[in-house]
Amino acid sequence: MLLENKVAVIYGGGGSIGGATARVFAREGARLFLAGRSRARLEAAASVARREGAEVEIAVVDAMDQDAVDRHVTAVADATGHIDIALNAVGFDHQQGLAIADTSLEDYLYPVTGYLQTNFVTAKAVARQMRSQGSGVILTVSTPGSRLTGRGLIGNAAQSSGLEGFSRALAGELGPDGVRVVCVRPHALKDASDTSYTGVMFGRIADMSGLSREEWVAGLAATTLLGRLPLRAEVAEYLAFAASDRAASMTGVIANLSAGALVD
Ligand SMILES: NC(=O)c1ccc[n+]([C@@H]2O[C@H](COP(=O)([O-])OP(=O)(O)OC[C@H]3O[C@@H](n4cnc5c(N)ncnc54)[C@H](OP(=O)(O)O)[C@@H]3O)[C@@H](O)[C@H]2O)c1
């Protein structure tokens, strides 16, 4: 198993990517601590992960709140002695698809400050523990908006470019202490529309073009080299590899999981 004896914390652990990753990490032998906003979603993700044989604990924690996350990380470290993997898979609805003229400053900044805040908060909390143990992997999740252009993307682009820059710089800062940082950049997930905030968001964008959500998503799929969008499980499998010792020399990476919507 890839993650035997590893302790993994997942913020946004009840979400589409968080839950799928919890299941794969569980199958690979990790002990899991899932944290997020809604207890019901955390319970659901935990019960799926427990069916893979893992020990799983859940906690309702606001991943925007430094004190709350610090307390959670301290509690996990006290219980286990180490934290090997920390994934931030927090996601929330925000405005995309509008021209700059129709976008308020607040709507533009909402994803930028939100995603950069939660990733700062969780990385700061776990980095303290990982530096003291001299090992660990911090995983972040970006979007192809960091490299795309076109109308309606400015907030998503600033958020994603900022998070990728943050991840790269953090890898440089924490590398000498044995801590790796890996960012993944999946395209819109084919099988998350009914569970992710993106379902509502993509529906709004599709409406603006007079398309159904399914037609709009099919248009996205057509722009990829593989002719399809990635799946939650594919992102989760990659994260399990990146978090494992088999990827011990991998850090400062922005992993392109766009199904070929972007080429490097
Ligand atoms: N879905 C996609 O197509 C896609 C593609 C590329 C990248 N991504 C990225 O992947 C990440 C996760 O997206 P997702 O699709 O998995 O979203 P999701 O299914 O909507 O899950 C997001 C999770 O984050 C939790 N959350 C939100 N605010 C929180 C807070 N303040 N504190 C703690 N937990 C909080 C939510 O809790 P509640 O359940 O209580 O709301 C939810 O469980 C995002 O960064 C997104 O940009 C997603």
Automatic annotation (TrEMBL):
Keyword tRNA-binding appears in the UniProt entry: no
PANTHER family, per the entry: 5-KETO-D-GLUCONATE 5-REDUCTASE, ALCOHOL DEHYDROGENASE, PUTATIVE (AFU_ORTHOLOGUE AFUA_3G03445)-RELATED
Native source species: Leifsonia kafniensis
Bilayer-spanning residue ranges: none
Record bears the keyword Oxidoreductase: yes
Domain of life assignment: Bacteria
Family, as annotated: Belongs to the short-chain dehydrogenases/reductases (SDR) family.
Keywords: Oxidoreductase
Protein's recorded name: SDR family oxidoreductase
